[in-house]
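cron nightly-structures :: item 1 of 1
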Amino acid sequence: MSVTFTAAALDVEILIVGSGFSGLGAGIALKKMGMHDFAILERAQDLGGTWRDNTYPGLTVDVASTSYSYGFELYPDWSRLYAPGAEVKAYADHCATKYGVREHIRYGKTVTSARYDAASNTWLTRLADGSELRSRYLVSATGLFGPPKLPDIAGIGDFAGTIMHTAQWDHGVDLTGKRVAVIGTGATAIQVVPEIVDRVAHLDVYQRTPIWLLPKPDRQFGESTRRLFRKWPITQRALRVVTNALNELLFGLGFSHYRQMPWLYAWFEKVGTNHIRAQVHDPAIQDKLIPRYSFFCKRPSFSNVYFPVFNRPNVELITTPIERVNPQGLLTRDGVERPVDILICATGYAVFEKGIVPAFETYGRDGTEIGDYWTANRFRSFQGITLPNYPNYFMIFGPYSAASASWFGMIDTQVRHFARCIAAARKRGANYIEVKQQAFDEDFEKIMKRRRNQLVFFGNCAGSNSYYFDRNGDVPLIRPATQFGQWLRSHFVGMNNYVFQTRGLS
């Protein structure tokens, strides 16, 4: 029996924080259930999250677009297998409009804290403007990444030129004819560097840790292909099956079951090494670009254009650590100072630190702030989405939630789990949902047991400087499971793992 509770004391029944793909996915799931009493709070003035904020030159997905999309909403208008960032943002806009979620978004609303009120069985969410919103349920969909992270280098505040982080790209800055330095050689840098090299007079690339790159199997989707996708969606669905299977092989099986199949990543390392040697002429530079850690200790990527940059006479790869930033340039530990006009920091984000997941203070039933709980007890959650003492609270990017190279694989499963919890409460005539302590503990025990097979604990990850690891040496980002296994759990995990009750009705 479905029961509707009085909401006289509520501003909204379900409050979602964040309008990136995870927040949009949660809203779409509610709309499909016929639930319309929800709001999505967004700090910015537009939706899209990471794909709204990042606009740097060369921005593309590093997962095939056929997999980097909701499973329920295929998109036939991709221009390439690896679509540019602007198209991903357009896809977010498309989904928000098609599924009627846009009308639920409240822009310019920055959440500072949320507190569970046991007396009324509600969440009280405080905003930066001092206002408060009361909801029955709270969904944290603020994403994985925190604020852009500038490098911790002495003197960086003294630099007299222009500094940009790739996540805050200033398109008003003209790189033409300038001496440019890029700090970082991760997934962002490999896209930016080839895109800007033709414009600059000289380019210095400062590498702390090399990155594993594989040849990029990209291809253009012409109008005929897009017509085929539109007329016969099963063709795009079939391609998605193929790209999902490759992601599963690369990430789910290879990463989570490395101990059983180390040969797979040994093969990837051979392919990656040969890719460098085929594209870079100078053996000394080749040697600097070849990682000394196991494939996937940090996230690898694909590129056909990054390595050839280092054959150019106006490009220098620098692996000597930076001593300090001076007003006119960068000084390395060997005593060499290189002049710089524009400094580009491709140095990523803070990941799985206190105050990052979630992006606001969250106080549970006993008043414990969730960041303090994780500091004392390590990052953990039930199936990456719930935890005891935080009733009616759901995380779309909780600890141990990712089991796929595509974030959409995780979003689809997490949103499915969240929707099942809400549906189960409504069916039972309940308004209180909390995971049982025993289920929570058993899930974490399984994770700790299964992680023994993961590459990060069995392979050679020393010197990888991977954002996978937290301060405890755990890898809370990645669930030791396959995406298929995670899909099964999201669809069939027993609702008997939860307490459903009726509390605090007004």
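cron nightly-structures :: done
The domain at 12-147+351-501 is CATH 3.50.50.60 (FAD/NAD(P)-binding domain).
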